[in-house]
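Why do we care about 3D structure at all? Because function follows from shape, and shape follows, mostly, from sequence. That is the central idea of this module. The next example makes it concrete: a single protein chain, its amino acid sequence, and then its structure expressed as tokens.
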Amino acid sequence: MNLIVRLVGAACIGGAMVVSALPTPAMAQNAAPAWAQTPVTTVEGISEYRLPNGLRVLLFPDDSAANVTVNITYFVGSRHEGRGEKGMAHLLEHMVFKGTPTFSNPWKSLQDHGADFNGTTWTDRTNYYETMVASDENLDFALGLEADRMVNSFIDADVLATEMTVVRNEFEMGENSPFRIIMKELADKAYTWHPYGNSTIGNRSDIERVPADNLRAFYKHYYRPGNAMLVVAGKFEPAKAIGLIDRYFAPLTNPEKPIDNTWTDEPTQDGPRFVEIRREGSQASVGLFYHTPAGSHEEAAAIELLADVLGNRPSGRLYKGLVEAGHAASVTQDFFAMAERGGLMTIAVLKEGQDPHAALSKAKEIVEGLKANPITDEEVERARTKFLKNFRIAMADSNRVGVALTEAAANGDWRLMFLQRDRVQKATTADVNRVAQKYLIENNRTAAAFIPTKNPVRAEIPDKPDVESLVKDYKGQAEVAAGETFEATPANIEARVVRTPIGDNIELAMLPKETRGDQVNITMTIRFGDEASLTGRRVVGSMAPAMMRRGAGGMTYQQLNDAIDKAQSQVSVGGGAGSVSVSIVSDREHAAEALNLARAMLREPSFDKAEFDNMLRERIAGVEASRSEPRALLGNALQRAVTPFDKTSIHYVPTIEESIAELQSTTVDDVKAYYANLVGPAKVEVAAVGDFEPAQMQAAIATVFDGWQPRNAFTRVARPYVTPKALNEKIATPDKPMGVVARGTAIEMSDTDPDYPALELASYVLGSGGTSRLNDRLRQKDGLSYGAGGRMISRPLDPFTTLTAQAICASPNAEKAMAAMNDEFDRWINEGVTQEELDQRKASYRLEFLTGLADDGNVAGMLSQGLYLDRTMKWDADMLAKIEALTVDQVNGAIKRRFSGATWVQGIAADPGKGDAAADEAK
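And the structure:
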């Protein structure tokens, strides 16, 4: 787990492939290079190779996948930063997206190929990954790009000056969050010498002042093949991948100066510590931190289980002692398994009226009281079952594994991921209690002031082990079962889908196919009620499904969680007024068991008052937090203006204060009455995708609904079009360095309107992805925002479409950001899109859509919605064809026709007296 994870990067839009200009030495056809003749090791289908230049290469082929992932990890993070360099690794991550002589705009090139991509920086590593539709061209592109970025990235002073303000805006975003602030302060106080105490995002002065020459030297020193690990996972031909890797990476050389290991170690803590932060806001938070061994240490597995025993919801010791006891609204428990000494961190968020001193005192009592109240076998088994279930589900997705290997590699070796699983399987209750009593002690705690103590008991943290000796002969366990080769296109999906009714009002769509890990995804939606019976029931309509998940079939919340974990499945329940939705991720062996548990939730919910009270406190605290949050305040104001329905309407948007009042006035009896009078299968759509036998799946799903009678008829609630209420709002958010600007409107149009395809593509040009007009202007050109974008949402059955955009920015730059956003909207309406934009976005739109079809859960949702709308996958294929046939005149004509006379709402939420305008002027 990570202290303050920084994620950077978003999909970028573009067109044709850019061919790398890196050296391409000749290779004998069909002859693997010497380094690829024999793998260094192979574990559970993953083979490691080592190039002569030191680059570690992992290949994880999976023919059942539809995508391929390329992930490269550099073993450099905030731990490696020196004085004046705080945040340099993260800032460099941004700069690597700014281009090379060959790839002038990596963001654009990546989205040209329909990639889902990102870059992340942490204490011990930086990584970059891209997931794309599997093809030889895409693999060639990704490997060429990453090899080029390793050695040829621009680290230009002018570009740095602009990107610095973007990173500073990201820093300010964290400064707006009490949760992130307390995380940062805890780490800073816990580590007096070790660089783990430094936030990965860095500090403001270093971000603003770092010279380009220093950043370039940092890049040249650490970005080298000998300090990197390359992973290719998913659908690809290993021989072709090896040839491309040899072509692009083998010619790269390492700088002459070697990379020295960091040597600073954190001294054993010799007394409790405390730090207090006073800032404006609506919520109090308290936290604890205890030092622990490195993530590679043999005790890490027991600590992993200990963290879950403490923080799990609802059985966790902290959840019961803080949330259920009314001391806090929520609690988070994290184990930071790092390359060097890590830690256990607890953060509790309070709602208004709760005493932070009482909460902190209770948290200490729980965490440090495990000697008197030892952890039980039941708690350990629950945590182990949950861990192993999540591991199994993750291993069913080779693309996900390809990225996940980064964290284990950063701790010393990628095989630690599997070794940790093995250790978790073997860890005993005695092991968990031993590490609890060893590390969760007063003198190893950060939260309170230092107090001199005679003969202190000190937690001696062992040195990190020799990882090479740990994994030298490690072979792993059996490989996850592979699936079939299936090209996920609308036509291929439709050709295999089986649709059949189950009774008079239940429709089922099934897509059987062999999947990795025999995985199965099931989605079901139960609809009921009409406008008269549902009006005024917005709150109970959202709380009833959540309560179904908190106890059913005679099982408590925890017993239900345990049953789901034992079934090796994930089952979620959601919905709103008039519907309940269920989502299941399971496998061939356990799908029927998961469906039986879903049946209990739908038909035998317990509606326990104590669980209701816990959930109500959490929800009230969440809404209360938005009282001082710029995005929430502005979002609510603009949503009310874009959809100004009357208070008597079922579509009315309440204010934040009204939402709090509605929650406070809701009782568990209200939820019970809603369920008893309305919830039933008046109309149901179910979709299943994955490894199953159709007749067995149909029978299992039918069992969920057998004998369950509708309580009333279902009549769809129409959403009429209402003209937006013109608005130009300015909301003051004191002591919030990060501001927000937004703009939006609504028009009378559904997704069956002839103008819809043109406007779907036009809005994609305006606001979607890294090279959208809005992001290009506010982030890339003006350096005003860390993230800017927009989207159009059209309803399929009602003539109601919204177009909204939002950008974060430093508070003093809010007016500039608002002006830039308005300028881009005006240019979009008055000038339209260009032929070049049209051509590029058509290609990337299609690729992104196909990438989404590789997600079986997403496909299940599409099939289920198709049953409700009476649409097949042909509808999606036809829509893609319409978009690909669009002309510039059609797109620009639709923009003018629909938006030139629209009623616009816009606003700013910012602190008018905070920020760093002086730094902007200096820039």
